[in-house]
Structures are given as C-alpha cells and as structure tokens.
Write a structure and sequence with these properties.
globular, 0% helix, Methylamine Dehydrogenase, Chain H, mainly beta
C-alpha cells in the first residue's frame, strides 16, 4: 500500500518512502512479490535478492505501491511512472499487455508514463490501495483511478471503476491543501492544511470514524468524526488494513477501527517524544524516533514487530507484513513475513519469517562502494536506492 506526505510540516509516513535528492548516479533495486510485474524488472517471477532496474526518475524519487502495482515519481515532476497490474486501470493507462504466465491478468511492463491532466500541473503526491490509486497535483486537484466497489475511488456510489484519471469533485475544500495522503487496502485518509482529516472507502470496522447508523462505506471525501481530546492536533496519519492512526507533534497517539491485533489496547500510554516516522502495516503500527529506535505494536505472528537486536535506524519503511530499515551503520535490514523474497534470501532455519536482525546484501556491489540512500516497502515488495 502507499502514502505520500507533501513537503509542508515535518513528519514522516509509512509505506511510501521519500528518497532524498542526490546525484544522477543512483541505482535502484527491487525484490519480493512480482506475479504481475510490480517490481518493474521485466518478468513476473518473485525476486529473492535485490534486482537492479533502471528507473526513469533522475533524482528525488518517491515510490508508492498498491496491491500489485507501483508508481515512481519525483516531487514537483510532471511525470509519474507506473508498472504492474492494470486490470482495472489502477495504473491509469488504457493499454496493457498480457504476461506469458497468466493470460487472464493484465499488466504493464517496465514503466508507463502518467501526466497530470492540466499541462501546467506537477505531481505532488500519489497513494495506492489494493486495486486503486489516488493522485494529487500542484493545482490542488485530486484524482483517482482503478477499482472501488466500497468507495475507494471517492467518486460516489455510481462510480466503482475508473480506468483513467478522474478528478474527485470539490476536494480538497476551498482554502485548504493536501498535507499528507495515505491509502491502504480499502480506504484512504487525507490530512489537510487546516489540520482536519478527510477519508473515504470501507469504514465498516470504524477505520473512518463515526458513521451514520447502518452506513458501511464512505463514497465521497468526508471529514472524519473523531473522538479526540480538544487539544489534540493531528500532524501525522497512518492507515492499516482495518484501522487508522493519528499522531500529534508531541507524540500523542490515537487509533480507531478494528483492534483485532491490539493496535488500540497496546498503544503507548505516554507520548512518544521526538518521533521521526509514523507508519502502519496491515496489522501493526510503527514509530521511528530521532534517536533511531523503532517502537511498534500490533500483529507479530510472523515477525512483523522489530527484533530485539535491531540496531538504531536512520530510515524506516513499512510494508503490509514486513519492514525495512537503513541502520545508522549504513546497512540494510529487513524483518517480518518474507514469503515472497521481500526480506531477501533467507536460510532454511528462518523459513519465511525474520524475527531477528537480518542484513540484506546487494549482490554485485562491493562493500563500501555504495551508500544506501532510500528504501520503500509495499505489499510483499521491497525497494532500495543507492548512490
């Protein structure tokens, strides 16, 4: 799944990682689930080791991932690049090709370009859910595409599929702009410049706040009704599979929705001061502090919670059931459910689950010859960027 924060207030997000501006000699690698070409490596087999691809963005990349599709873009660029499943138009392209392994599915290979409808606009943010995508442009317009049988597109109950970019009417409200947008399996959250949070999609577990009696889905953007303390000012948002989470600048946390994995009852009772990254997987919530410590709670049945021997991190990226970290030592670490190779090559003893410190090496790069500069994690997919 994916989310993006615009460069306004400082806080971080989950399953999209912003990659810092660097010289053009970067190298991008992907690994993990690839049955529909979502890794952009020109075949449809899972990759258990970081595999190099040649991204079209020269610098300042962002990567956002959906269920089986991926976008790469630079903040302020007029072009985004899509790869992977396009069955419902979630890559916002009309044409696609068939993978030889499964003629019933439609994919785009390598990368297809996506440009804003307005010729003067630039892409500011992209977020992705299971089979849908949401785009924010510099002219303050928000677009959606893909499949939305439970309101995921935000286009109303009569529009459950959009095979190309379709603008969401009257959003954001006049006088506001999008600060952060996060999408997960079936719902989207948007933090606006006035501090209010809007959302749409599946809300039957309470992940979209208090709904009217009998209401399950929000079909168009609506301000969430949240039972928050009066002085709680939201500065960061995160979305799990069936829950939503909010954090204030001083580290107070509020969680709504399903508590199947204890994301509400197990949250820290005290404020988490000095937080840098606030993110969610499908069943767990993660915080990276400025000291490099990772706090996490929720589902840990497959190693999703950080191992006790994890070293301090500089950056954190959270996927559906796994996570990546760049250590202060410059190394790449992975933990969680790695059944598709998204945690790298594992030993027989590890099986598909990583519960302890696990370094992921990049074959073909000599130790000390590169710097890991950015990471992103999605639905059993992983991305690493080096200079």
């Amino acid at each position: 799944m994916g989310d993006t924060q615009l460069p306004l207030p400082s806080s971080s997000m989950g399953r999209v990682s912003q990659l810092s501006h660097s010289p053009s000699n970067y190298r991008l690698f992907s690994f993990g689930s690839n049955s529909l070409g979502q890794l952009g490596i020109c075949h449809v087999e899972d990759a258990h080791t970081p595999t190099e691809l040649f991204p079209p963005c020269p610098s300042g990349m962002n990567i956002t991932t959906g269920g089986n599709h991926t976008f790469i873009f630079s903040n302020g660029s007029n072009v985004a690049y899509a790869t992977g499943d396009n069955t419902f138009g979630q890559c916002s392209v009309a044409s696609s090709i068939k993978p030889s392994s499964d003629s019933s599915q439609s994919i785009t290979t390598k990368f297809t370009t996506i440009v804003p409808p307005s010729p003067t606009a630039r892409w500011q943010a992209i977020s992705s859910g299971w089979q849908f995508s949401i785009f924010v442009s510099s002219d303050n317009a928000v677009y959606s595409c893909g499949n939305g049988p439970r309101g995921e597109l935000g286009l109303g109950s009569s529009a459950t599929t959009a095979r190309s970019l379709t603008q969401i009417p009257s959003f954001p409200p006049p006088g506001t702009t999008v600060v952060q947008i996060v999408s997960t399996v079936e719902h989207t959250l948007v933090l606006l410049s006035n501090g209010h949070v809007y959302g749409w999609g599946n809300g039957r577990k309470g992940q979209l706040g208090l709904l009217e009696t009998g209401e399950k889905y929000i079909w168009e953007p609506a301000e969430l009704r949240l039972d928050l303390p009066e002085d709680f000012e939201i500065t960061g948002i995160a979305a799990g599979r069936e829950f939503s989470a909010f954090i204030s600048a001083d580290g107070e946390i509020h969680v709504i929705g399903s508590d199947k994995w204890g994301v509400k009852k197990s949250k820290p009772s005290n404020k988490v001061s000095g937080w840098r990254t606030f993110a969610a997987g499908w069943g767990a919530i993660y915080i990276l502090t400025i000291e490099g410590k990772v706090l996490a709670w929720g589902r840990g049945t497959h190693g999703q919670l950080p191992p006790n021997d994890l070293p301090p991190l500089e950056k954190l990226a959270v996927g559906s059931e796994h996570a990546l970290g760049i250590g202060l030592d410059g190394k790449l670490y992975a933990w969680g459910w790695g059944e598709h190779g998204n945690c790298g090559t594992l030993s027989k003893e590890q099986g598909e689950v990583v519960r302890w410190k696990h370094e992921v090496s990049i074959d073909g790069l000599a130790e000390g010859s590169y710097r890991i500069d950015g990471i992103a994690a999605g639905c059993a997919t992983s991305w690493v960027w080096t200079t």
